[in-house]
C-alpha cells in the first residue's frame, strides 16, 4: 500500500518510529487491515512506486516492525490522501524512509508475493520489455 512519510523519530542503533499517511482511492477492506499491534513491513520506493533495490524483492529489503497506532484525520482528506495515519516502529530504519518520501507498507497478514518485474526500476532494458516501431513490417 503506498504511503507518504510524515515524520521519523530516530532512536538508537537504527530504531525509529515512522508516521505515514496512506494514499487514498484504495478499497476499504485494504485499509481495514491496518490495525494497532499488527506486524508490518515498510520499504522505500520511487515516487512512481517502483521498487529500487535490484533483483531483491521488497520483502527482502523492508524494515520490519509493528503498527503502534492508526488514526483517521478529522475533516476532508486532501486529494490523493486517505486521511489515515499509521505509526510504525522498526529496529532497522532504511535510508529511503525519510519525511516527504513515498514508501510501501504491508501488514504482516498480507501474502508475501514477488512483485512483477514491471514494478522494478532499473535492471531491465526497456527495449526488451516494450516493442518499438521496428516490429511493424514496412510496405
Strand line-up in the sheet with most strands: 1-2-5-4-3-6
Portion of residues in beta strands equals 35-45%
Briefly note the CATH topology name. Elongation Factor Tu (Ef-tu), domain 3
- Work out the helix count: 3
Return the CATH class.
Answer: Mainly Beta
Taking the alpha carbons of the first and last residues, their distance comes to 47 Å
| Major beta-sheet overview | 6 strands, antiparallel, barrel
Quick one: overall form?
Answer: globular
Summarize model confidence as the mean pLDDT: 85
How many domains make up the coordinates?
1
The CATH architecture can be given as: Beta Barrel
- What series of H and E elements makes up the topology? EEHEHEEEH
Unreliable spans: none
So what's the oligomer here?
A: single chain
Helix coverage percent: under 10%
Amino acid at each position: 500500500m503506498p504511503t507518504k512519510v510524515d515524520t521519523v523519530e530516530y532512536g538508537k542503533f537504527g530504531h525509529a518510529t515512522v508516521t505515514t499517511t496512506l494514499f487514498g482511492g484504495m478499497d476499504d477492506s485494504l485499509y481495514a487491515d491496518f490495525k494497532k499491534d499488527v506486524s508490518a513491513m515498510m520499504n522505500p520506493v520511487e515516487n512512481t512506486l517502483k521498487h529500487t533495490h535490484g533483483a531483491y524483492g521488497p520483502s527482502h529489503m523492508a524494515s520490519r516492525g509493528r503498527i503502534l497506532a492508526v488514526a483517521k484525520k478529522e475533516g476532508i482528506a486532501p486529494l490523493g490522501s486517505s486521511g489515515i495515519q499509521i505509526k510504525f516502529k522498526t529496529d532497522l530504519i532504511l535510508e529511503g524512509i525519510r519525511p516527504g518520501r513515498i514508501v510501501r507498507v504491508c501488514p504482516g497478514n498480507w501474502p508475501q508475493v514477488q512483485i512483477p518485474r514491471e514494478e522494478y526500476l532499473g535492471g531491465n532494458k526497456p527495449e526488451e520489455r516494450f516493442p518499438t516501431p521496428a516490429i511493424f513490417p514496412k510496405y
